[in-house]
Amino acid sequence: MWVSLFGALLCCGVMFVINWWAALITYAIELFLYIYVTYKKPEVNWGSSTQALYFVNALDSALALTTVEDHVKNFRPQCLALTGAPMVRPALLDITHAFTKNNGLCICCEVYTGPRKLCVKEMNSGMEKKQAWLTKNKRKAFYAAVAADSFRDGVKSLLQASGLGRMKPNTLVIGFKKDWRSAPATQVENYVGIIHDAFDFELGVIIIRISQGFDISQVLQVQGMCFPSIWLPRATYCLTYQTSFHIFFFLITESTINTIQSMHVGEFNQRLLEASTQFKKKQGKGTIDIWWLFDDGGLTILIPYILTIRKKWKNCKLRIFTGGKVNRIEEEKLVMASLLSKFRIKFADINIICDINIKPNKESWKFFEEMIEPYRLHESCKDMPTAEKLKRETPWKITDAELEAFKEKSYRQVRLNELLQEHSRAANLIVLSLPVARKGAVSDYLYMAWLEILSKNLPPVLMVRGNHKNVLTFYS
Amino acid sequence: MWVSLFGALLCCGVMFVINWWAALITYAIELFLYIYVTYKKPEVNWGSSTQALYFVNALDSALALTTVEDHVKNFRPQCLALTGAPMVRPALLDITHAFTKNNGLCICCEVYTGPRKLCVKEMNSGMEKKQAWLTKNKRKAFYAAVAADSFRDGVKSLLQASGLGRMKPNTLVIGFKKDWRSAPATQVENYVGIIHDAFDFELGVIIIRISQGFDISQVLQVQGMCFPSIWLPRATYCLTYQTSFHIFFFLITESTINTIQSMHVGEFNQRLLEASTQFKKKQGKGTIDIWWLFDDGGLTILIPYILTIRKKWKNCKLRIFTGGKVNRIEEEKLVMASLLSKFRIKFADINIICDINIKPNKESWKFFEEMIEPYRLHESCKDMPTAEKLKRETPWKITDAELEAFKEKSYRQVRLNELLQEHSRAANLIVLSLPVARKGAVSDYLYMAWLEILSKNLPPVLMVRGNHKNVLTFYS
Questions:
Q1: A55/B102 Cβ within 8 A
Q2: B174-218 tens-digit pLDDT
């Protein structure tokens, strides 16, 4: 390299020796061309060797990483976030980005279902645009998409195959399915199936719920209608998000007639949009409440801890809630405090909750029973053959036997929500151990009902469950 | 950083000022400890921050790569090689590594099929060992594995979801299925299905055939039997490679009785082992023959060109064979020569073959007909209902109508093999355009028969087909 530089400088010198005024003119022309190109900045992709070097660099460092041994201290949340197109669920991306930025991995995933040829074409054409959106919005995340026969199949592919070497997901981040009560049974089955798949493939799971929901595709489409210039690039979502497409049609056909209704929709969209930017803003003074109810390796503690070291969340203090016996409150507090200080995690307060396992009050329970009523089979009121037939036809429905067997667990979720309302109503964020259901034993709708009742009427909730891999350590 | 260093040095100085002999003793002890640790080299994984930095580095450079725009000049073969466990098909890995090393991506893939719980456990436990094997053998490749219901499903996941950002596969590398005639029909269906899937997902395909086959798992298992010390780590393959497992059982039960047979097996294994190392050695003086029969974007030319710039293959010269009309041989030669020199690809010779499209000689054709005989339906000799029924029951069989419709194409493959025997029998490597079959139109067995007859009795053959993306350019 240095020899080349020396040679080049020598040549420049020799130019002047041979004919000084010709050399001067040459330099003047060169300088003019250089300034011209710099000033005009023509948008040309030269396919330069610098670009090739980026590839070699990325490859080499990914290969170097494979030689590094795993260590609990170097655990990082490497998240697979089911955002769909990243602009459609910005809040989900924001919160995931908050705990993966700079030291973790974030992959925004989209699954295309439908005829393969069409899907692949749509997918490949959108790939670059969506990655560019992430870069433009300063999200350090990758975009990945697959075409599959069903949503669950697609996610299964992503859970297993995405990532390169060590940079592969260890945690699934998914928004809470708000419309589980009105959605078709197959959608609910897929949703719960994905959670089971993630556990099977030894990933942790984080389900995030905000009261307004994450999906703002309808707002994007309305915006697209108002500003036709940005309508075109967004038309691609229509195929995938057909539900929102219908709403969109409803908007242009109905709203002109019924202005009151359209105003309602506008207001609703406004609130949706506000909710979608809530994690972009700096969080006010407050608390992040951690309800650490099971030991899952520490992910439930690690995620909020990482949040508190971010600029946006630094005004939030950690409060820990955990179960305990009424006669040993002080002892358990001390044990927990020493454990956390060993983990070098700063906390503002520890609360030992003794009355988790008591029965919930009647009203809450009645509410829960009413909620699951449409999904119950009530097989005990029917004769055997009809019951058997019903069970076979609608395996996703809640049987009486199942409800009886998991009564304690249902009580617990309802009771937990009461406690959450009592203690954490004003928190900025709640991080909560996610209840798990054995595959096959608990029907999909009962599980969704648990999640629903657990996280109802609360500030943003993160339901977290690690895969029993330790992610925290005493050793420094 | 410099301030810290200055502070540290200052402290050392102050130590001496305060109490010079105590400082000296301290240094002596420190030095002793340092030498002790360096000498003993305890195998401890400290989970150091250096290791964490590797991760951040890899992530940052992968993210930086996503901002780079695609350009034909920066096309690199990024291969998904279906090697199974990388030690089982070393020759397939070697040849792939030869054209991906340092400037392309190579992912060694394995698919586990069977009960999910078991598969995932086996998969995750083998993951690190297999990546370590790659590192130890200086293969710049990643290992990836998935558990799926069927082999094809697993490969589908890998084709779509593997890789991160820009570092994702664009070419599928797969060994030729040697045992297609004896294997169950579902296996053949899966194999051909994978090739179709790859084209659907817009990847290129490279099928590699060496006369001995790639899979040396039986040799590994026999070795494992002789040297019990290395038997244990290899026991994990048994589950996956059940066919070889049977052979292994056959070896320990039968070979003790029938020594002649076991000697045959030993000889066979020896040859298999030799074949498996053929791409590890430096290639002798000779040629790489490129039969460029379709324009697929240039992958068929690019792969052998990359090989010739490697040390091991630098003694091999490129010879180009392509079709043409008998009255324009010299013209077409000139056109091709100027095209290749524009691509800056050095070649030793160009041959224009005029008699590709004539009928093959009778013997070769008879051989082909005999080969496909067991897979033919012969529906025209039967009455309509039986024929229809047979067609429904065995959709993978070759119908008379199909054979008639694709007679020209079958002729062509047989004729091509004749030409290959004539011109390229002595080449070090043959690179050949892969014939493609429209999905549904050509039955799986007819397609396999084409590949079989095309690449029969030849030196190692690479059948290549790009995805019609240009990979070569005039512009420098």
A1: no
A2: 999 999 999 999 999 999 999 999 999 999 999 999 988 888 887
